[in-house]
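User: We ran a pulldown and think these components assemble together. Before we commit to crystallization trials, I'd like a predicted model of the whole complex to look at. Sequences follow.
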Amino acid sequence: MRRRLAPVLEGRTFTRVEILDTRLTRPYEPHEVAAELQGERVVEVDRRGKYLIVRFASGRALLVHLRMTGTLLHEPDGATHVRALVELDDGTTLAYRDVRRFGTWLLLEPADVAPYLAAKLGEEPLLPAFTAKGLGERLRGRRAPLKAALLDQRTLAGLGNIYVDEALWYSKLHPLREAGTLDADELKRLHRAIRKVLELGIARQGSTLSDYRLPDGSSGSMQDEFRVYGRVAEPCDRCGTEIAKTRVGGRGTWFCSRCQAAQSN
DNA sequence: ACCTCGTCCTGGTTGC
DNA sequence: TGCAACCAGGACGAGG
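Assistant: Here's a predicted model for the assembly, 265 residues in total across the polymer chains.
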């Protein structure tokens, strides 16, 4: 999304902003945020974890979190569930569509951007600084299920329910494994698997299960790469055992009970 | 400090 | 066929 949005937004000025959903900018007034955004010029579209960061020449930044069903559409054609509209100085329009209304827009002053993100997010798993050893340090002493620890954005940034299940399958680790008990080899496998699934997700441009779209309206294809997510009773691609479904931390959880044994290997 | 769970929200699916 | 109940989940606040 960031990669597709950057060429559309960078250098553009927000000439008119209309926020249609009062939930989007909570707790701030939609019309006040819209007024503040008007006239801002985009210098960069950045990303941190699951936040899109629209950086303006003023130093301020708009943090967009798409949550479940948010999408940013350039030149939308008859889109439904449009929650905000941005007119750009090249005459084109950016629409924010969000069926479930979980997404958020937060406009931050220059000094607040870095501290806000630092408080909410752990390391970026695709940067060189992210290591298996570092991952071990983040998990050390934690008694929560491994899956729950990985879904916590402060452990590392960017993994959601799909990517955690996929990463655990690749690393052959059980979702209920106590997070702090992984040995060096398991951490190495997990580290590799996390990078693999995120890189695959980016290459496939995300998973379109129903609502997710790229800014040009096209679909992602990561759903075609799923090894476990949503595949209950289908055979495991590695061993043929039927994929199991359970709940961990209130989330649907798919795994192979043979490949991902409860105990360490 | 850490952990778990309920809540928000809508539309698609399931079950009677 | 119609309608109610259920399911999907990221982040956050309450409570343990």
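Chain A has a mean pLDDT of 95. That may be worth checking against your pulldown data before setting up trials.

User: Thanks, that helps.
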